[in-house]
Design goal:
By secondary structure, the protein is α+β, with helices and mostly antiparallel strands. The chain has a domain at 2-95: Roll (SH3 type barrels), CATH 2.30.30. It contains 3 helices and 7 strands, in the order αβββββββαα. A 7-stranded antiparallel β-sheet has the order 3-2-6-5-4-1-7. A hairpin with a 4-residue loop joins strand 5 (69-74) and strand 6 (79-83). The two termini are 49 Å apart.
Length: 142
């Protein structure tokens, strides 16, 4: 549906190369590109090693890209740091698989847009002004 097209466009319409993340694609979806990526809650300088290991294709939002480690937010809301070289821009199929709710598209689409006033049809204007009555004897204007 529409969501898939947007996801495809958001990831493949960008002209940036899929290499190192840049500031412009902050907030976009990234995925782990290696077998396992170390994930640190408070930054990579922790003495006890990574807090988690993220398996390949783990989806995340890029918050703040940087040269060594980028700040990211996992889909469960957990924020932390991952090596910039271990992530890449997520392919559209992965994004849509992770972000599309498991309910059927029709119900989710109508429910989501139902609350957006910009997408509702405008209210019909009240019909207060009566039709102008023709003046007897006046010629109808061409």
């Amino acid at each position: 549906g529409i969501l898939t097209l947007l996801a495809v466009c958001a990831t493949s319409c960008s002209t940036s190369d899929l290499g190192a993340p840049t500031a412009s694609n902050s907030g976009k979806y990234y995925a782990v590109s290696v077998k396992q990526a170390a994930f640190y809650f408070y930054g990579p300088q922790q003495a006890n090693g990574p807090d988690q290991k993220l398996p390949q294709d783990t989806l995340m939002m890029l918050i703040r890209p940087s040269f060594g480690y980028s700040k990211v937010k996992l889909m469960n809301g957990q924020q932390g740091y991952v090596a910039t070289q271990d992530i890449r821009a997520a392919p559209p199929e992965l994004v849509s698989a992770e972000t599309t709710p498991p309910v059927s598209n029709e119900t989710s689409r109508t429910r989501k847009f139902h609350f957006d006033p910009r997408l509702l049809p405008p209210e019909p204007l009240p019909n207060d002004a009566p039709e102008p009555t023709p003046i007897p004897g006046a010629e109808p204007s061409p």
